[in-house]
Each structure stands twice: as structure tokens, then as C-alpha cells.
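ok, trying the design again with the full structure, not the truncated one.
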């Protein structure tokens, strides 16, 4: 594989794995960006400068995917199996869907109450659910052969939780302004 064909994990010298150390990934990004920064090639030809810009863009794109658990899981599943989960958003798990509806209702009630303390407690609860879901995702990715159906469900569940966390941030911004 040439450097241009490296997958995102290889760009950072990582094994394709769901569990990664994001602070180490950030440090590696800074090191790699420093080595390919366009300023280093200011006196080089335009082709070298363009390659430097392409590499910088590739590193930033890879980092954006790998630092985000949902995007990382989607990318890893596609890398290992060819399955693209970025377009489909269905979960056939009535218990989980009911839990999500209840969480949405709880968020609505907390947002209406203007109680930042309750919102913070709710955020902690969602964070715990997210950590548990990421742990399950890590376990699923470590199994051979991969259970692609369970992985897809786990990715969709993680997407729901990330969406809820995003909505909590919006509610918090609204409460604080």
C-alpha cells in the first residue's frame, strides 16, 4: 500500500481497533502535522506544496473520524467488512427505542424546568450509557468473526446517545443564555 492509500489507522500508526487513546491520537496528529506543514515546503516546488496540503487535509480528516466514537465505529466496520452504516438509521430493538423515547421526554421536561442542575445530572446519566455502549462496541469489534448485525445495532445505539448528548449541549446553551 502506498502512503496515499493508507487507511486512517495506518496514518497514525495504529492497529485497526475501536479502542484508541484519543489524547495520544491528538499528540500524534500534532507531530504529523508539524512534519508535513506547508510552511516547511515554502521554498519547494508547487507540487511538493500541494502534496503537503493534501497530506495535511488527509490527516485532519482521519483525525476527525478516529476521535469520534460513532464515526470511528462506522469507519472500522466499513474497513473490516465493507458495510456502510452512515446512511441507514434503523434499530430493531423495541426496548432500546422505548428507552430513547423516555430519555427524550426527560430531556424535554428538564429543558422546560430551566434547572441546570437536573440537566447536568441527566448529562451524567447519558455519559454513563455512552461509556457502556462504547465498551460493548469494543467487545464486539474484538470478536472473531465479527457479528456485523450486532455491530450495526451497537453503532446505531451509539448514534442515538451521541445525538442526545448533542441535544443536551443545545439545551444547556439555551438555559445559560
Amino acid at each position: 500500500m502506498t502512503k496515499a492509500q493508507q487507511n486512517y489507522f495506518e496514518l497514525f500508526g495504529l492497529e485497526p481497533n475501536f479502542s484508541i487513546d484519543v489524547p495520544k491520537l491528538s499528540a500524534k496528529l500534532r507531530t504529523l502535522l508539524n512534519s508535513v506543514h506547508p510552511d516547511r515546503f515554502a521554498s519547494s516546488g508547487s507540487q511538493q506544496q500541494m502534496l503537503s496540503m493534501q497530506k495535511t487535509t488527509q490527516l485532519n480528516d482521519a483525525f476527525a473520524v478516529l476521535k469520534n466514537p460513532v464515526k470511528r465505529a462506522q469507519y472500522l466496520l466499513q474497513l473490516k467488512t465493507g458495510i456502510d452504516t452512515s446512511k441507514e438509521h434503523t434499530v430493531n430493538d423495541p426496548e432500546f427505542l422505548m428507552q430513547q423515547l423516555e430519555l427524550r421526554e426527560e430531556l424535554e421536561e428538564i429543558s422546560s424546568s430551566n434547572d441546570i442542575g437536573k440537566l447536568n445530572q441527566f448529562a451524567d446519566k447519558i455519559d454513563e450509557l455512552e461509556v457502556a455502549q462504547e465498551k460493548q462496541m469494543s467487545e464486539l469489534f474484538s470478536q472473531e468473526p465479527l457479528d456485523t448485525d450486532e455491530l450495526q445495532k451497537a453503532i446505531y445505539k451509539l448514534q442515538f446517545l451521541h445525538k442526545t448528548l448533542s441535544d443536551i449541549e443545545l439545551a444547556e446553551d439555551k438555559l445559560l443564555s
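Keeping the full-length input from now on. The mean pLDDT is 88.
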